[in-house]
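lol ok so funny story. i was supposed to be doing the assay writeup but got distracted and ended up predicting the structure for this chain instead. priorities right. anyway since i did it might as well share w the group, maybe its usefull for someone
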Amino acid sequence: MIDFVNRLFASDFMPHGVCFLWNPEIVWLHAISDVVITVSYYLIPILLVYFVRKRADLPFHWMFLMFGLFIFGCGTTHLMEVWTLWHGTYRLAGVIKAITAAASVVTAVLLVRLLPDALALPSPAQLRDANDALRRAHDGLERRVLERTAELAAANAELRAEMAHRQRADEERRQAQDALSEAQRELAHVARVTTMGELAASIAHEVNQPLSAVVTNANACLRWMAAEPPKLEEARKSVSRMLSDAHRASDVIGRIRSLLKKSEPEPTQQNVNELLRDVVLLLQDALTRQRVGVTLDLESHVPPVMGDRVQLQQVILNLVMNGVEAMNDVGDRPRQLLISTRAAEQGVAMTVQDSGVGIDPAVFEKLFEPFFTTKPEGMGMGLSVSRAIVQRHGGRLWASMNEGFGTTFHVALPAHV
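and the output, tada:
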């Protein structure tokens, strides 16, 4: 075997041309024929490889490559036929034929195994029928698409009309909401004016006290100045007291004006404890005349809230006056009003608790309805306006009945972050 390999390219046999007695006609007939066959056999694999590369979707493309390899081997054997006309390298020619034979056997085996799958491929007639069916399906699909498109266009037109209608409805709703807000502001102003009218005597007393003190201190100042010698230090103290009382009167008038003014809400950061103290101070005389004791249980560190100062003061004023009026008929126990504030989970909680006669459970659910009142002279707007104000500030206002006597009103306002 080693000797065979070593002499693979040895030309130790007579060339094939000897068999033809070197007859030129026969020699060149075989040579030219084998060369033409070789060229053709080499061209076919190249075309097959090109075809397979261009048709990536081709089924069984590897089979075409196997045929190309087999044909290439056949071409090589014919090329060796030309070579052995003049050179006796029959060992090399035999090896090439053996390789070609192996390729042909593998190709034949694979072709046999592939034959059922190849036969299962649709025929041209079947492909035409399939194409016709696809064309008909395509035409039907196009018709359905056109019909669906027309339906969608109609639905789109209806949707646009509905959207336009909703936009008009939203605009009308917004206008109605604006009108309602304006009406609520008007009612809130009326409620403030009405409440302040009811407190006219208390307000007059609150203003009269510092003014009377101013007159008294002014007379005292004149006396100290008329003394011989003038007592300037005593006169200076009288003037200081006059200024203090004047500022006090000015503060009272300022609080009254702020509650009576009619203007757009101005949300700013507010301290609920300060608002409560201001309102209680304004109502102090009315509370005294009604023999109502007020206990302020205010947590020192409550978070600030964002809101309009006048509107929040009106809520407190309404709730306090509501508690005072609820105790008008109480004579067998102290008239006590407990006002408290606490820092809640998401803001501030305020309660106004009275020891009045309470509320009939049958009408409890109607407390916050507009124009509903249990008082003969009442308007039925205080609690309704108060709830609307609290809701506009993002909070809640509700009531609960006490275990003993009276009612508690609860206000929850979100903290200003």
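Residues 268-417 form a domain with the Heat Shock Protein 90 fold (CATH 3.30.565.10). The first strand starts at residue 268 and ends at 270.
back to the writeup now i swear
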